Amino acid sequence: MVGTISLYLKTKFDKRKIVAREEEIVQGAKRKAERIVEEAQERALKVLGEARLGAENRNKKLETRLDRIEEKEVREFRKTLEDVATSVEGEATVVVGQKIDEEVAKARVEIEKYKTQKIKQVDDSIGEIVKETVRKVLGKGITALEHKDLVVQALQEAKENHVL
Q: Which domain holds residue 73?
């Protein structure tokens, strides 16, 4: 009987050791999972920041190119119209001058529309790039609300860190 009690107590003691070891393993797995999630979040924030910077750089480059194109087109247009205007005398000169101003205004409006369209295209593609990047980094897609929350959080952190 003492042997049975001894065996029972040993089994109970072994079971407690096993349960304690299981708890230790579970806690270790939880810590590891938390580290992995934190690292994924950090990488996602880094990727979002890089995407934002890339988008800003593309927007600036696009604006610079569009401004140069606008200036060149306006110069060429003015030169052409001025050449025509110098060949006409009197009242025709006044009419041509008005026409030049109208055409320049139209050209600027068209260029501005084109510029706005291209910037919108870049912004739209950035959103898709960020979604795809987040999906790749986190290994899953996120909802639009989660995406918005991540972007807002990243912007707030950027403001706090004086990045923006």
A: 2-160
